[in-house]
Amino acid sequence: MQVAALCLDGKGKILLVTSRGTGRWIVPKGWPMPGRTLADAAMQEAWEEAGVRGRVNQSSLGSYHYDKQQDHGFAIPVEVRVFALEVDELADDYPEKDDRKRRWYRPDRAAELVTESELKKLLRALPARLGHQA
Hints:
Residues 1-127 form the Nudix hydrolase domain. The protein contains three helices and seven strands; from the N terminus they run ββββαβββαα. The protein has helices at 38-50, 107-113, 117-130, and strands at 2-8, 14-18, 25-26, 29-30, 52-69, 75-90, 102-105.
């Protein structure tokens, strides 16, 4: 299992980052961390991958699945639990700034850009769930 932060700007936009390996658009995600809740681990990933500081909701928005490619040419199935994170600050200097691009998108456009079908569905349902206009 992994955890992901769905970074929201308060106006209904979502922050996507590029993956380091393939350059495809994703939400910041990573592995659970000892001593942290799943939501707090997702918030740490958002800082490392996107330079985000903010407030994370401890309740999961949902989850999606994908096949994580391994160095030896095979893939393992991974469930990713997604947590909403309200962005308060977007830093210019953060750990992976040289490895990734980041960009804000409306949920419908973000859904078109991500690969995982369950994540697409979660992104498309987001405006109604959060009370924003799409």
